[in-house]
Each structure stands twice: as structure tokens, then as C-alpha cells.
Amino acid sequence: MFNRDALERLIFLDIETVSISSDFDSLPNRLKPHWEKKAASLQRHTDNPSSAADFFVERAAIYSEFAKVVCVSFGYLKFDGEIPHLKVKSCYGTNEGQLLEEFGQLLDRFPMHPKWLLCAHNGKEFDFPFLGRRFLVNRIEIPKMLRIQGKKPWEIPHIDTMELWKFGDYKSFVSLDLLTALLNIPSPKDQMDGSMVGPCYWKDGDVERIKIYCERDVLATAQVVLRISRQALVPEDGVLSV
Hints:
Blueprint: H1 4-7, E1 10-19, H2 32-42, H3 52-59, E2 67-80, E3 83-92, H4 96-107, E4 117-120, H5 127-137, E5 158-160, H6 161-166, H7 176-182, H8 197-202, H9 207-228, E6 239-241
Helix pairs in contact: 2-3
């Protein structure tokens, strides 16, 4: 699907997000009625809907209006003969504005020509738009690769591994963990999964663990693209921090 030259022009990306406050009561007063409306709308066909407060803890982290980025990890491949290595960098912490500014500056160092492409699993539905919105909220210049307004579909430098897997079928969501299982790739979720990110941040304050989890998702995404491109996988000692 991708030759080695094309593989070395992909920037694999993943983000981890948490609610903007630890609970509904701590949410800014101006946002509370908006969350109540959203919670009611999302649960309108549910027999036993959760309260707005409980639903906030359960689901707020995936909605960019009520959540923030706590980690952005990205990496790119370099081949040493037949063997690919993944160079990885993470911007993470409790200050969303600071980590986004750092990430944006790093991303803009990649030249647009020859074209680099951002690649994430479900990135077009989640990671890329979430980042763009949070850049706006924090009043930070959006990096070039996330500026898609006014562009034609073929001009947008984004690749989504879920789209690659679907072959045009839009009926269902395919998780990264399922895809790694199908393609015989080590799971990125064997030590932590997405449901644990919020408690890890708000209760444990362990952003370092979140960073490690995020980087594992970046590696898994790269491995998926390598596998479907019929290339060797990144070996256990092939992930390098930069």
C-alpha cells in the first residue's frame, strides 16, 4: 500500500484527552447548562439515562468543548536496511496551552514539500478535529497540517488507518486494539486503556503513565501501516525517543 519512501513521509499521531474539570460540579457555570443539554440529547433513547453529573465523568473527555488535551505523541519511521525504526516525541502535561504550542512548533518543522502526511487511527473523526478546536480555544496558531478549511479532500494531508481498513465501508467503527489483534500486532492496550486515562490524570496525577500509553498507540498505528504495506514491523528495541 505504501512504499518505503512514502512510509518515511508519514507522521503517526495520537492524543489523550480528559474532561476540563474533574467533575460536573467543578465545571465553569457558563458551561453547565450546555453539558446538561448535550447529556440529555445523547441519552434521549436510553431507558435509564445517567444524571448530567455522572454522564460528565463517563463521557466528557471525548468532546472537545468539554475536554482538553493532556498528551500529544507523534513519530516517524526510518529504515535501516529492511528494518524500520520509529522515532517518537511527546508533548504532555497539565498545561494544555503550553503543550499544544510546543507540539505546533514541532509539527511546523516538517516541510510541506516533499509532502508529509499526518496518520492516526480514527484521526479524521477524533484526533485532528479535536486538536484544531483546542488550538482555537487556547488562542494558539494552528499548525499548517491541521489547517483544512477551504481545502479539497485530496489536498488535506491526513491519513486515517480506520479508513484504510474499511475500504469504503462506513457502517462500523473498528478499534485500534481489534485491528492489531486481526493483524497479529502486539496490543497497545495490555497495560492501560482509554477508560483509565481520566482517573490516571485526575486521581493519580500520573501524566507520565498517560504519555507512555499514548506512545504505545502511536507505535501500534505505525505497525498497522507497516503490516498492510507488507513491510517488517518495528522491533522491540526499535522505538527511539527524540
